[in-house]
Structure formats: C-alpha cells, structure tokens
Amino acid sequence: MNDFLQFLSEPIAQRSLWACAVIGAADGLMSALIVLRRSSLQIGTLSCALLPGLALAILLFGLGEWSLLLGALAAALLVGLSSLFVARCSAVDADTSLSLIHSAAFALGYLILLSLGLQQKVDDWLFGNILSMSNTDLCVAFAAAAITFILLTLFRRPLLLWLFDPIAAAALGLPTRALSYGTFALIILALVSSLQAVGSFLSLGLLVIPGATMRLLTRRAQLMFPGAALIGGSCSVLAFFLSFPLGWHLGATIILLLALVFLLAFLLSRRGK
User: What is the phi/psi pair of residue 9, to 5°?
Assistant: First the structure.
C-alpha cells in the first residue's frame, strides 16, 4: 500500500490517472455514436490502420511525439477515407474495401517497424502503455476530448436524425455526406488519442463497450451519450487503481472491467424480460 501511495505522488502516475479519466470518458461518449452508427466492426479494422502511419512517420521524420501523432492520424484518415471512396466508386462495399486496404497497410507498417528494430515499441502501440504518456500526449488527449464533447453536444440532434432516418435527414436539407465524413474523422481522432493508452488492438473495446452497455440499459439515444461517457471514464479510473496492486496491464484491465460491466448490464436486461 505504501508503494502505491508513493507511486501516486509521482508525475507519471498523475498523468496516467488524468489520461484514464479523460480518454475513458471521451471514448465512452464516442462509443455511443459508434454503436448507434452500427460501425463497430469497421472501427476494429480501422484501429489497426494506425500502425503503418507510425512506421512511415518514423522512417521519414524519426521517432518524435508529433511525427508519430501526425503519422497515425494521416494513415487512419487515408485508409478510412480511401475505403469510403472505393465503396462509392465500385461494387465493393465499405467494410470489404476497408478490410482490404487496412490489412495491406498493416502488413507494410509491421514490416517497416521490425526492420527498424522497434519490436518493443510495436508491442506498446498494439496494446498500449499509458504509463509512458508524456505531457504532449496528455495535451493531445485533452484536446481530442474537448473537440469530441463540443461537437457531439452541438450536433447531437442532427446526428441522431441522420443515424435513425437518413432519408428524412436528406429531405430536411441536412448535409448527410458531410455528417458521414465528419463522424468518421471524429472517430479516427478518438482512435489516435487513445493509441498510447490502450493501443490499436484494445482501443476497439474502449470505443464500443460503453455504448453497447448503455444500449442494453436504455432505449433513449439521448441518454446513451452521457451514460457511456460515465461508464468509460469510471471504469478507466477504477482500472488504474486496480492494475498496480494486482500487477496487471492497465490497458487490458480497462477493457476487462468494461466487459464485466457489460455482462452485468446484459444479465440485468435479461432478468427484466
């Protein structure tokens, strides 16, 4: 216990705790949109598209914080928007084109990183290492969270109309194509900001489970957003306090707690029927 209290006094622990709260709440809020949008599998494949961006950024500009961030963001946007373009311009659907492009890009990025001798870094980027977050990483997480909260609050009503009835949204003059690309870009921003915390593999859980849990607990879409943010943030903070005494990986502990909360919500929802 004394070791844990001493650890909490360190700046690295305080940064990690803030990161858990901010990233967990922001990704939880975003998860409500993802679940309502029914794009969970799409986000799963897209999360792995961050790796080639990291690889090319290191290859071109070296191992720097901003080069990694911009590289991951550029790769995710390129892969995601390319899949939408291919789907609109061919008979191949969006999920198929995304899977094709992402798998090829992931293979290329993985080979580049291994050739650069960055096996340990690859593990951190795939599964997360929140304790290694710098002040810059924390600032990026705060900025991404602020953008997410502001945009989803301001545009929640048109987003919900577009999600539930895209034909009516178009008839009312809403920019449905801009909403599609805009939400996609916002999801990519959430993926990039959570890369350091839970990695590209585990970020799918943080971006899906809170919203899926709220989907079991309420039929009101308006309540899903704050509820999912609360679940994501509280589970992430609780995981921080559990992982150190138990000696568990923090990112994996976050996802495990979220899964347990989902299981509890599932059991409660079945009991009420």
Answer: -80, -10
Proportion of the chain in helix, strand, coil states, percent, rounded to 5: 85, 0, 15
| Domain with 21 in it | 2-266
* 206 neighbors 31 (Cβ within 8 angstroms): yes
CB 22 within 8 A of CB 145: yes
**Selection from 44, 77, 71 nearest residue 200 by Cα:** 44
127-154: pLDDT as tens digits: 777 777 777 777 878 888 888 888 888 8
As a whole number of angstroms, the distance between CA 253 and CA 111 comes to: 29
What element of type H or E holds 62? none
Token code pair at residue 171: 């008839």
Structural domain includes residue 271? no
- Judged against a pLDDT cut of 80, whether residue 193 lies above it is answered with no
Dihedral angle, C-alpha 12, 254, 160, 99, nearest 10 °: 100
Cβ atoms of 27 and 34 within 8 Å: the answer is no
For residue 214, name the pLDDT band (cuts at 50, 70, 90). very high
Half-sphere exposure of residue 51: CA atoms within 13 angstroms, side-chain side? 32
| 0.85 exceeded by pTM | no
Helix axes 65-89, 94-115, angle to 10 degrees: 150
CA dist 267 and 76 (Å) reads 36
CATH number where 232 lies: 1.10.3470.10
